[in-house]
Amino acid sequence: MSNTNRAWRVGQPNDDTVGGMALVRGHFERSEADKPSPGEGQLVVKAEYFSPDAMNHAWVRGMPGKFDPLAPGTIMRGGVAGTVVESRNPAFPEGTRVTGFLDWADYSLSDATDHMGVPLQVIPEGIETHSGLVTLGMSGVCAWLGLFHFSHPKPGDDILVSGASGAIGSIVGQLVPLVGGRAIGIAGGPEKCAAALDAGFHAMVDYKAPDLVGQIAEACPDGVNIFFDNVGGDLLSSALVNMAHFSQIMICGGTAHYGAHPAPIYNHIHLAMQSVNMRGFFYFDHVDLWGEARARLGEFLKSGRMREWMDIAEGFDATPDAALAGFSGGTKGRKLVRLN
């Protein structure tokens, strides 16, 4: 076990592209220090995977009402899956596999909670380490919360999913058939649409092709019963025109709004015209539901009713490019970085 602790710290970009981007390459500064040692009640987690996602954007730019941006020079934070290699906490003996929002470093020092103040999540036996960041991580839990806890789909519902080739959308598309619904995905380009169909979607809409409103209408001729939205912007505006009477819109994310120039949303009058219920949820507001979600998702995964769609970058130094790919449509499924 190396005593060197590589880490990514928050940098200060000098180029003018930062104004319109969530993250740029200059936000990532590589550093090295000594491996931390645990004090009483603490433990050290050796990272095996990083999980780039919207939280990296949030920590760099800040999230109003949730947390302030990280100061330059601070170790960057994000999803981590790894193994406890030193422990002075009896609840987390050495060898325990855990996930949490920890330092993007080889080693994270923890008091058994992560940077969001949430207890570290133990990866169950029989579940792969990376699955703690995919099906049993924020992606899978958000998909489960949005469908089973908030929107309650019925057999026969047409459920439209934006970001269908992404981390959360690709899981939603596999959960919909389990309740007898019909999953219609939105993705960009023929390649991603074909991959999403192979992953379990019944039909696909290509937002890069002409007439997005018309494409949705053709895929859902009786209207959309539930729109599970991970993007916002034009995709939400186009879905609004196609919502069925007494339908639902579930706001899980908004990648179209993460930059400095958020995309506008139009057609909101259809919320009234069609009596549509639109609501959102924040993952960390529902920690009390994570256990149930992880248990159910683990059952689906072990039984083969779900499979994982991953895009894995290799090596610690691949982290910046992997994180930036999530904001340019350059990923398929859950983007992970496997450390070496």
From TrEMBL:
<protein>
    <submittedName>
        <fullName>NADP-dependent oxidoreductase</fullName>
    </submittedName>
</protein>
<dbReference type="Pfam" id="PF16884">
    <property type="entry name" value="ADH_N_2"/>
</dbReference>
<dbReference type="GO" id="GO:0016628">
    <property type="term" value="F:oxidoreductase activity, acting on the CH-CH group of donors, NAD or NADP as acceptor"/>
</dbReference>
<dbReference type="InterPro" id="IPR045010">
    <property type="entry name" value="MDR_fam"/>
</dbReference>
<dbReference type="InterPro" id="IPR013149">
    <property type="entry name" value="ADH-like_C"/>
</dbReference>
<dbReference type="InterPro" id="IPR041694">
    <property type="entry name" value="ADH_N_2"/>
</dbReference>
<feature type="domain" description="Oxidoreductase N-terminal">
    <location>
        <begin position="27"/>
        <end position="116"/>
    </location>
</feature>
<dbReference type="Pfam" id="PF00107">
    <property type="entry name" value="ADH_zinc_N"/>
</dbReference>
<dbReference type="InterPro" id="IPR011032">
    <property type="entry name" value="GroES-like_sf"/>
</dbReference>
<feature type="domain" description="Alcohol dehydrogenase-like C-terminal">
    <location>
        <begin position="167"/>
        <end position="285"/>
    </location>
</feature>
<keyword id="KW-0560">Oxidoreductase</keyword>
<dbReference type="InterPro" id="IPR036291">
    <property type="entry name" value="NAD(P)-bd_dom_sf"/>
</dbReference>
